[in-house]
Amino acid sequence: MSWLEVENVSLAFGGLKAVDNLSFSVEPGKVFTIIGPNGAGKSTVFNLICRIYDPLEGDIRFGGESLLGARPHEVINHGIARTFQNIELFEHASLLDNLLIGRFRHGRFSPLSELFFLPGQLRQELEHRRKAEEVIEFLDLEGYRHARVADLPYGVRKKTEMARALVASPEILLLDEPSSGLTTEETDDTAFVIEDIREDLGITVVMIEHDMKLVNKVSDKVLAINEGRFLATGSASEVQDDPDVQAAYLGGEAA
Amino acid sequence: MRVLFRKSYKQDIRLFRDRTQAFWYLLFLCIALAAPLFLDGYFLDELSFVYIYAIAGLGLMILTGFSGQVSFGQAAFVAIGAYAHTILLSRYGVPWILSLPLAALITGLVGLAIGRICGRMHGLYLAIATLSIAIVTERLIGGGGDFTGGHRGLPVPGIDIFGIAIDQSWKTYLLNLALFVGAILMTRNLLRTRSGRALIAIRDSEVSARSLGTNVAFYKAYAFFLSAVFAGLAGGLLAHAFYYITPETFGMGESIRLLLMIVVGGIGTIHGAIFGAFFIVLLPTVLSWVKVLLPGAIATSGGFDSLAFGMILLGFILFEPDGLYGRWVKIHHYFNVFPMYKRRSFQRQKTFLKTERLK
Ligand SMILES: Nc1ncnc2c1ncn2[C@@H]1O[C@H](COP(=O)(O)OP(=O)(O)OP(=O)(O)O)[C@@H](O)[C@H]1O
Ligand SMILES: [Mg+2]
């Protein structure tokens, strides 16, 4: 079990302070939601955790260990998997291949064994495939296994991205707007999926979300930010009743 | 229509999907093996060229088709392989059986070094960088003095494997065929394991490949390495097929031809490299047949071959971007579902809005 701690982190793009002295921590086994108006810096927080950007100051720790020493491709080895706001799938590969790429961290670079398909490879491939099938079943993706991702409908693509993160067997899952672009039914479905991820798989979820119905339904704790700064934190209803949060949503500068 | 039922995960992992597929590929292999019985030396040599070009094409397919790094420099690696092999053979007396893999490895290491440098580049910059590599390599070999034979070139010794001279068309044919099949199997194995999937991941989305643990720079360099190894192998074989090599043999034009080859064949597929090799090697022969039927003035004018080649390429880019292999899949489907074929079955459905990409 691990804690994710973001401590006094700041980041600027040119003159724009995208994240400004922000701190929060996520408890294990919970669903933690970040809300805030457009451009508040939510996705940037994910990109900071995933080491796409270097914070100007502050520290990000997971399980007591600082992530700042990790390179972007090493973040997954700490057990942190993510999805992207604008779906970043491997478009020209099948859904199954997308999931198998998700298993990447559970293997080693062994060129000769791969090129000659030595006996160990088949065993490994079967193991990856079993894990992929588990997740396919978990997310009801059975019908799409061999379809090219580029040809799938939007809702399925969103699910595929979540599935790809799950096959990596992470300890913590970062979801960037899991319901954006989905129909009402698909959003309801997403709520159940997130609850199952927490309950059945025991994976901690950090989610960025705009749909307040979904936020209310699944969040254990909510953090509101605006212009990169901390606004409020607490239960979903506490945060929504906070006057600063209401002001931020109503008209930014009015606060 | 035939629907494929899968009963075991292994079906997706094995070389062949099912018995029918295995049957067809093995049949092709048998025909290829038996070809010396019914083809004369000229056609066997032509097929040898197809196999060699296909090996270089598979290498380029790994780099450009799978890892998504466009390269105008593949012929440079073919040249390095050809020269390394020839120099090892004639100057250092290295036995053929060691010299060829050694030449491929040397080429691979050069590819690796170049891959480390080019790994950060994309699109146009990468194209220009690889193009310069092709030009520089040609110059370096040309200016290499006695070591490379300069512009006079180098004679290539014959093939000798454990005292057996491979000196007839049917023997070189079988040798080239064996290495060609080996190259296909390796590419196939790459694609059905972890590293191959990493390359495809990098091609389609570097950010998410990284978020799943792929060291992008490392795997890009690995793609360059593998691609160069294949090119080096093809270069060694090509040297023997030409008997005599000069820097001009592997000029920039050759690099472009190799790139066009995989585009015409069908980018991003193993079949594409093979179909493309058949196309590139056999086209001049077919054109020479066509020329007989044309009025003299057109047939004897110098640019006819280039013009025909350019027109065909343009046709592919305009009407069949999936290449010869894509066309083949469609024809195959046409007969499978006859008379129910609909052009629409291959039109991509777009049921969603195209999302903006991070970057
Ligand atoms: N790579 C970048 N370069 C420059 N500015 C950036 C970059 N990424 C984000 N920004 C800016 O930083 C601010 C925060 O962006 P971010 O994407 O984190 O917002 P968000 O809270 O995720 O918004 P949304 O709800 O629209 O997704 C925005 O003003 C954005 O324009
Ligand atoms: Mg965002």
Total DSSP E strands of chain B:
4
* Low-pLDDT runs of chain A: none
The backbone outline of chain B, from C-alpha atoms, is globular
Spatial strand sequence of the major β-sheet of chain A: 6-7-8-3-9-10
Specify the helix fraction band of chain B.
over 70%
Q: What is the CATH architecture annotation of the domain at 27-41 and 71-78 and 170-190 and 203-254 in chain A?
A: 3-Layer(aba) Sandwich
Q: Helical element count of chain A?
A: 9
Query: Strand portion of chain A, in percent?
Result: 15-25%
CATH topology of the domain at 27-41 and 71-78 and 170-190 and 203-254 in chain A: Rossmann fold
The top-level CATH class of the domain at 27-41 and 71-78 and 170-190 and 203-254 in chain A is: Alpha Beta
Number of helices of chain B: 16
Q: Which ligands accompany this protein?
A: adenosine-5'-triphosphate, magnesium ion
Task: Let me know the largest β-sheet of chain B.
Answer: 2 strands, antiparallel
Provide an overview of this structure.
The complex is a heterodimer of chains A (255) and B (359). By secondary structure, chain A is of the alpha/beta class. Among the domains of chain A are: 27-41 and 71-78 and 170-190 and 203-254, Rossmann fold, CATH 3.40.50.300; 88-167, no CATH class. In chain A, 36% of the residues lie in helices and 23% in strands. In chain A, helix 2 packs parallel to helix 5. The longest helix of chain A is centred in the middle third of the chain and has 20 residues, at 119-138. Chain B has 359 residues and is mostly helical. Helix content of chain B is 71%, strand content 3%. Chain B contains 16 helices and four strands. In chain B, the strands form two sheets. In chain B, strands 1-4 form a two-stranded antiparallel ribbon. A two-stranded antiparallel sheet of chain B has the order 2-3. In chain B, helix 3 crosses helix 13 (270-293) and helix 9 (194-204) packs across helix 11 (216-242). The complex binds adenosine-5'-triphosphate and magnesium ion. Residues 13, 16, 18, 36, 38-44, 85 of chain A line the site of adenosine-5'-triphosphate (ATP). Adenosine-5'-triphosphate (ATP) binds at residues 13, 16, 18, 36, 38-44, 85 of chain A.
